[in-house]
Design brief:
globular, alpha+beta, Endonuclease, Chain A, 4 strands, 148 residues
Length: 148
């Protein structure tokens, strides 16, 4: 059996063991389980007409209703540092991760601000919100989409 080697691009420190490397390399940037769950729920109530990861918009929102100018980011609690979840920093390479998370949060704020300045309504929905109360998340989106 050959061992899979994980490519390093210099953006992250080397993990202490292969299992961590395997878990981290399996994280998706788009089409995550919470995203798919929310999109299916929006389709179920006939809230279609959105575009996914729309190029040309700051931050490439996960879901964008162009006509209504509504951008939706579905943020993962770990990577974007959810204010509702009390997540600790990883135990190894703490300095790196603290800086990485701070940069992620600054980037997120900058992209939201850019969209708002362009006249977009921005909804940030957290992974934990989708898992805890999907109907409430759908209702938030529906309220904005149908009011425009």
């Amino acid at each position: 059996m050959t061992r899979k080697t994980y490519l390093r691009d210099g953006r992250a420190p080397l993990p202490k063991n292969e299992s961590i490397s395997k878990v981290m390399s399996g994280n998706r940037g788009k089409d995550t389980a919470p995203e798919i769950k929310l999109r299916k729920a929006l389709w179920a109530i006939d809230l279609k007409g959105y575009r996914l990861h729309r190029k040309g918009l700051p931050g490439r929102p996960d879901i964008a209703y162009g006509r209504q100018k509504i951008a939706i980011f579905l943020n993962g609690c770990f990577w974007h540092r959810c204010p509702n979840c009390d997540l600790s920093l990883p135990k190894t390479n703490t300095t790196f991760w603290k800086k990485k998370f701070e940069m992620n949060m600054m980037r997120d704020k900058r992209k939201v601000d850019e969209l708002k300045q362009s006249g977009w309504v921005v909804l940030v929905i957290w992974e934990c919100e989708v898992n805890r109360s999907l109907p409430e998340c759908v209702s938030r989106v529906e309220k904005h989409v149908t009011s425009k």
